[in-house]
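pipeline stage [seq->struct] | target=Dipeptidase | organism=Roseibium aestuarii | residues=462
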Amino acid sequence: MSTIDKVLARIDADLDQSLDRLFDLLKIKSISTDPAYKADCAEAAAWLAKELTSIGIEASVRETKGHPMVVGHRKSGKPGPHVLFYGHYDVQPVDPLELWNQDPFEPTIVTRADGTKMIVARGSADDKGQLMTFVEAARAFIAETGDLPVDVSVLFEGEEESGSPSLRPFLKANHDELACDLALVCDTGMWDAETPAISVMLRGMVGDEIIVKAASRDLHSGMYGGAAQNPNHIIANIIAGLHDEDGRITLPGFYDGVIEVPAEVTAMWEKLGFSAEAFLGEIGLKYPRGEKGRLPLEHIWTRPTCEVNGMWGGYQGAGSKTVIPAEAHAKFTFRLVGDQDPVKVQEAFRAYVRSKVPADCTVDFIAKEGSPALRLDFDHPALKKGEKALTDEWGKTAALVGCGGSIPIVGDFKRMLDMDSLLIGFGLDDDCIHSPNEKYNLTSFHKGIRSWARVLEELAKD
Ligand code: BES
Ligand code: MN
Ligand code: MN
């Protein structure tokens, strides 16, 4: 039996134990945005450091101003690339809790009507189940062969879901320890349940929150209505002006740096046979929104967006209250593509907002640090190896896809550590990440582990 076949056989034989370990991690309530779960985040970090060390990847918990990082190494100067595997142990909040069919932190295996077995728990797909695919592959490799085929470092963070505020300072302070030849990231999806994928484009993001204030207190809307400014209306006006009738974003200079995808890439994507009906149908919708004249795949992969993620102001309780609120709020995020500059987008947004706020009113901004979009060259040597490994495992050619979501760190890997990222993940559109009843298919977990074993093996080859 070849080495890789032995490693794969061990992965198959150990699957139940691998699941037990994943369940232990899923039980930890590592919600990074909510300070109430700070100790849980620390517990998840400690659990991972212990786990890595026990399999032979010497790891430690590293404190930051926020939640801790976990860093591990197993390197001996082997030929081939030294890779840094990245994942995040933090998860999104679980609300609305009443929509879960179970406790989000009591993982269970659920069998769907079509026979699909799924691991249901918060973080199962984003990102604990995914990061454990790599850990389990490394475990099997070391247990079976005594070593990993290439030098490996590991970085797990606990603030991805809250914008990774501690990450830049950490990368800066630990540059030499973390700068490897290539980052491996398991936090994206497959093309469909049978077809593996490598994400060669990832959208960037920049966000802003605005608070518009008018009168010095909430007012009676009869007594002052018509004379006093209403911040809700001002924010509505701001939002309404952000898109034109063709769905394009109106901010001056916004499309600077947006790159048209080469025709051969679009042609490759056309062959994937994307169905907008199925994509939207699964979430109860029918008609694609977004820029006119663009395909839905472009809407989610290659075009920038502006979304209002939240807006509030005035009376929200039962019944009515005739009030003009003193202030109103809205949260915005822009998804970025190509070479769009997050700083310039934010400046253009703020200038536009200020121009829409009447005299007598004020606007305050709460910034979120941005990250630019990322692309991997189509002739990157690691891409070929990743494709080969995935195609061997899944029996279907790996698709090279875009990813609409964002992983802030990968931009920093490139800019700060001059390191490209190979984005391979096993999530599916119906995994409900960030939503109630998040799940990860058992097949994603099992074949995900096998895939990483094959990727490591391929990377070691010349
Ligand atoms: N794993 C996701 C990114 C993702 C989303 C990949 C969808 C593939 C498909 C990641 O954990 C995430 O949620 N990122 C946030 C970043 C934000 C909180 C800074 C996002 O994209 O909104
Ligand atoms: Mn994630
Ligand atoms: Mn996420």
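stage status: PASS
auto-comment: DSSP finds 14 helices and 18 strands in the chain. The chain has two domains: 3-202+373-459, 204-258+304-371.
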